[in-house]
Write a structure and sequence with these properties.
This protein is mostly helical. It has one domain. Helices cover 73% and strands 0% of the residues. Helix 10 crosses helix 12.
Length: 303
Amino acid sequence: MLANFFGKSSPVNFLIIFGLLTVYFLSNLLINQNTISFFDISILLLEISGIFFIYNFILFKNKLTLYNSYGFLFFAVLFGAFSFSIFDQYKLLQHIILLLFLRRVYSIRSAKDHYSKLFDSGFWLGIFFLFEPFSVIFFVLIYTANSVFQKTSWRTIIIPLIGFLMPLFCIYSFLFWNGNTDSFLSDFSWQIDLNISLYLQSGYKIPIILAGIITIFSYIVKTPKVLRISGDYRKYWTMVSVNLICAGGFILLISPKTGAEIQFLFFPTSIVITNWIESVKSKLIKELAIIAGLVLPIILLLI
């Protein structure tokens, strides 16, 4: 029954899944007795709404999954399983910027306004850089998208760089005018911190292990099937794979780590899991997978 319901895409599904995330959010507040103002709750819900809207747009505009609600559902489940990431306004804002960047990168599949998309991709990455300098790792995704879907030339190499430099130039000019360039230059004082001890704590370790096992399993099962298919689907899978690697590397490099940065993996992870679920023929397995996904965040909250 659940497989059939979420196997369709409609505004009702969207509202129900967003309502489900709200339940996870409120459950975390009540169980952990978090003290947070109504204003902060409103800001968080507004940011989460923006994230879900952009995610939904990218998913269906680029046909990264079939016409269903599985991707949207597992995206919400990941937020529920890593509920601590919901309460970081700063990281949620960064997530919105990252999704705006991914929106333009994945749209490179179409030759229409090709150069404009490359410039916009670099531009959004430049904005993201101002928040997290190690986001430059996502340049790999831009050039992968272009090489997979379009032809590579000196223009396609330079245009993203120009777009990237634009917000940096504007910010630097503003700070220079106000005599405060030190804050800008501090972005170039990179300190690599590969310490993952935070993720080994029980509150982080269990959901990371579970999500990691499911994602790796889904990827291993789905990839051989994708390789037997020619055309755009294989190209999309290459994009998602590189996206997953870049996001993982980015999280590993971020300093200091708060745990909330895990959410930067939710986009490619949810797509990988969804593509596996879509390939499962047994309705029973689909039902069990969906039920497990829905219940898992509540269980993790109670542990």
